[in-house]
Every structure is written in C-alpha cells, then in structure tokens.
Amino acid sequence: MGSRSPSLANPINPELPAYTVRISDRAKCVRLALSVDKGLEVVIPKNYDHLKIPELIHQKRDWIIRNQRKLDEREAFLQSQAPHELPDVIKLRSLGEEWQIIYNQTVTKFGSITISEQKEQFQLIISGNVTDTEGCKTLLKQWLMRKAEKHLFSWLRRVSIQINLPYCTTTIRGQKTLWGSCSSDRNISLNYKLLFLETKVVEYVLIHELCHTIHMNHSAKFWNLVSKFEPNYKTLDESLKQAWQIVPAWVGL
Ligand SMILES: [Zn+2]
C-alpha cells in the first residue's frame, strides 16, 4: 500500500539510476529496493522528510551500483537463454541425478500429454501432443515438484534431527526470488528449484531456514548459530546468490 511518485533523475550523481519514492504506511524506517520491474525504489515511512532522500542515495551509492550490476548480469544471462525451449536433459545436482527426456509425438483424443518415469534408465517420457510446449513444461514442473516433495521433505527432517532444531511443517513452492523461508510458527517452505543446486548449497539452505526457527532475522546471533552447523556458510551463501545461473531458463525464475 502507498503512493508512488514518478521516476526522478538522480541530482547528486547522474551515474546512479533514477528512482521512485513510495510512501508506505507499514514502513518503520526508510529502505531501498532494486528490482528489474520497478528499478530503484525508496520506500519511506509516512512522515519521512523527502529532502533527505538524495543524500541517502548518495550514501548507499556502492550498494546500489553493486546490486544494479548483479541485476543487469542476471537479465543479460536470462536474455541469452532460449527461454521457451524444452530440455532434453534435467540435471539435478543436489541428488546427483541426470534425467533424459524423450518426447513422443502421439495422437491422443483431446491433445493431452502424459509423463512417465523409467527409473532404471533415468528417463522421462512425455507422450501426446508434445508440440504443446507450455503443456510439456507444466508437466515437467509438476514432476519436479513431486521430486522435491519426495527428497527435500526427508532431507530437511534429517538435518533437523542432526542439528536438533525442530520445525512444524514443510511446503514446497516455486517462488521467484526465494530459495526458502521460515515463518514465526516454524513452518518452512522450500523452493523446488533447489533440486538443481549443489548438494552442499541445498544443505546450507536447510540449515539456514532451521536456524530461523530460533532467530527470525539475520542478526549476529543468527549467523553465529548458522556457523556452528556450517562453518563455511559465507562461501555457501555467496554461491547461493549466483545459483540462479544454474536453474535452467525453461523452468523460469
Ligand atoms: Zn534467512
């Protein structure tokens, strides 16, 4: 909720992107947000003095430039992919599995499509009207969701017991920007796209979310707890930030 003013050119440093200001009823302090859709957005509480904004942006210059570069890289990467192509192979690094996909164009009554697994050969067979790219993608994503439910649920349970941090429930989702999340009632949700990442990185995400059952923030105490179970957490967190490059374009982010 809130109102938005049009993009303003940045008066202090023309190198910095233009920004919009959004007044939020809920914001307690001012914050900056960068996204492909909205660009640089300054979210301010109701009574915040607008005149302070240019100086704030100037102070946050390094953060803005660094994150703008990351966004640009990500966009360029996505543009370079052929996003509508269907995969011939699905590589699930986390499980050490590589599935071949075979598309069988067959005539069916309603142009329907089906998917079946040949477990021994690690093959997925898609039959029916396979020219329906979107339909095939939907089936493949559903298969990935089931796969994630099967593996990530038990994986999380295992890690939870190991590090003695219980949680309440788990759900699998396909969020665009989150690998996982933990609510204040200790409900953990995990992104099925984690299946594409390295085992070590997934394990780190599980530990990270389980530590949120104790600390619902990214405070020093939180990181201290994470480091107890994963001393290498900084490197893993960095590789997680780059991990979108591993998720194939057909899955979408
Ligand atoms: Zn977190």
Spatial order of strands in the largest sheet = 1-2-4-3
Number of domains: 2
Strand content: 15-25%
Number of helices: 6
Largest sheet: 4 strands, mixed
What ions, cofactors and ligands are bound?
zinc ion
Q: How many beta-strand elements?
A: 11
Report how far the terminal alpha carbons are from each other: 25 Å
Order of helices and strands: EEEEHHEEEEHEEEHHH
Rg from alpha-carbon coordinates: 22 Å
* Integer average pLDDT: 88
Could you estimate the helical fraction of the residues in percent?
25-40%
Low-confidence residue ranges: 1-6
Domain YgjP-like metallopeptidase: 31-242
Organism: Pseudanabaena yagii GIHE-NHR1
Protein name: M48 family metallopeptidase
Pfam family, one: YgjP-like
Short account of what is shown:
The protein has 253 residues and is α/β, with parallel strands linked by helices. The protein has six helices and eleven strands.
Structural summary, described in words:
Helix 3 crosses helix 4 and helix 4 packs across helix 6. The two termini are 25 Å apart. Strands 1-2-4-3 form a 4-stranded mixed beta sheet. It folds into 2 domains: 3-80, no CATH class; 89-251, Zincin-like. Helices cover 36% and strands 22% of the residues. The longest helix is centred in the middle third of the chain and has 31 residues, at 133-163. It has 253 residues and is of the alpha/beta class. The structure holds zinc ion. Zinc ion is lined by residues 208, 212, 218. Pfam families: YgjP-like (PF01863). This is M48 family metallopeptidase. InterPro entries: UTP_pyrophosphatase-like, YgjP-like_metallopeptidase.
